[in-house]
Amino acid sequence: MAPPSYISYNGGDNQNGGAALAPKNSSGGLLLDPEQLRRQGHQVIDFIADYYSRMADYPVHPSVRPGFLRKKLPASAPLRPEEPAADDAFATALRDVRDLILPGMTHWQSPRHFAHFPASSSTVGALGEALTAGINVVPFTWAASPAATELEMVVVDWLGKALQLPESLLFCGGGGGTLLGTSCEAILCALVAARDRKLADVGAGRLGDLVVYCSDQTHFAFRKAAHIAGIRRDRCRAIPTYRDTMFALSPADLRAAMKADVDAGLVPLFLCATVGTTQTTAVDPIRELCAVVAAEAQHGGVWVHVDAAYAGAALVCPEFRRAIDGAEAVDSFSMNAHKWLLANNDCCALWVRSPPLLVAALGTEPEYILKASAAADDDGHDGDVVDYKDWSVMLTRRFRALKLWLVLRCYGVEGLRDHVRAHVRMAELLESFVKGDARFEMTAERTFALVCFRLRPPERLGGEKAANDLNRRLLEDVNATAAGPYMSSAKVAGVYMLRCAIGSTLTEERHVREAWKVVQERAASLLRKMEKVTAAA
């Protein structure tokens, strides 16, 4: 089919004999020029490489106040490029990134960033992002980009097998997966599918009776997703957890909560179990929780979703597979490959045992523009065509599969295992430091690469409030240390603790040792000050 006559092409006349009408920038150059892309692309790669080589020059967390950057930038965008030549304008903008923006950033790739679960980066992951942006397709249906859709189907099965997930969650086993942006999006998709299945059984008028379950350690993304899905806030049961069970969700307490709701005439809908909670990396017992849920078989049963946003990456190592024992019974599973598997932001994988339930809840009406070009099999059917627009909330989608495919190809499963195990070994080292210093104690059992600890207060001060105040001051002092580590805190069961999450691609053992030295020095200084105050009282 010939293109419309008004479309023109660079370097030649259009079909009506007119001059080329390709869009130009204000200086007369093409807006998408291969040679300019080559030149400026080299500048960007050099810029990023220099950034990583100078990472140690930046404090992990900046000392800035709200509004600092807005004061330095114009209130309106320029009407014309700031430099007459396009390359000069781009170089000027890159200088501002270096001089204005980077000094005000929290440097998540710093080897001294221990505050959050990692936003892991790699050379291949970064270049995969660049390649994806350059190709810039929108694979919302198979027809819109066949290779992109099928690569996503292949790569989610690759990843699922690498994580040792049950085959029932993979395309090869009758399930299937997709790549999304965040865990919140993945949970929302599963929750909407569960909601619609349940309402088809009990009636749409009972939306207000639906109840969802989690622990008090479950990430707030679940409660946010439940609210978006129309679940009443007072129908979200956050079941308390306890230190003596490592803050894992108790099957007995879940059973009691569900029974109370059924007795009250409510309808249990959804359980969100977590493998690796944000606060302490607690692991909910999936097999036992699924057994509780199985007893609630009326009205289609209760949907079980496993949120393994952080710790799911550890499943590439066989020694961690026990964390999801019993996962054969779950309905869906999600994890963030961008947290610990070198895939760069963003890349959340969601697998479901019954894809038709997702499509039934999230699918759109067939439209000519979406379906007309889809290939059919010999019988005239679409066969195994997947239209990923029907698997998620978003219609416009990114080609995330390309980046993840490159990461898996270039590093291999063994390379990913080495990456995870290196961080676990560093966490074990830090754990040994904490246990070897009588002034400190572990506040939660270390399971993966997060170490939770606190400084013990002098006995004569006593009390949790004194301990919490002391550790709050300790964290402030540690994070205020020039060129020191950046850590975070959690307060679980009334205990304020320091969190050291080891996972940056650039972190080495020496950075962990240096971080612990800073913690010890700051702790010693605090204790000396307390001794002086006590002596003077």
What's the structural blueprint in terms of helices and strands?
Layout: H1 34-53, H2 86-101, H3 123-135, H4 146-162, E1 176-180, H5 183-202, E2 210-215, H6 220-228, E3 236-239, H7 251-263, E4 267-274, H8 286-294, E5 303-307, E6 332-336, H9 337-340, E7 348-352, H10 355-362, H11 368-371, H12 400-435, E8 440-442, E9 450-455, H13 464-480, E10 488-492, E11 495-501, H14 509-536
Parallel strand pairs: 2-3, 2-4, 4-5, 5-6
Antiparallel strand pairs: 1-7, 6-7, 8-9, 9-11, 10-11
Number of E-state strands: 11
Q: Which term fits the overall shape?
A: globular
- Bin the strand percentage: 5-15%
| Mean pLDDT over the full residue set | 90
Distance between the termini: 91 Å
Total of helices: 14
Oligomer: single chain
Judged by helices, strands and strand pairing, the structural class is: alpha/beta
Give the radius of gyration. Answer: 27 Å
Order of helices and strands: HHHHEHEHEHEHEEHEHHHEEHEEH
Low-confidence parts lasting 5 or more residues at pLDDT below 50?
1-19, 368-381
Q: What share of the residues lie within helices?
A: 25-40%
Largest sheet: 7 strands, mixed
Q: What spatial order of strands do you see in the largest sheet? A: 1-7-6-5-4-2-3
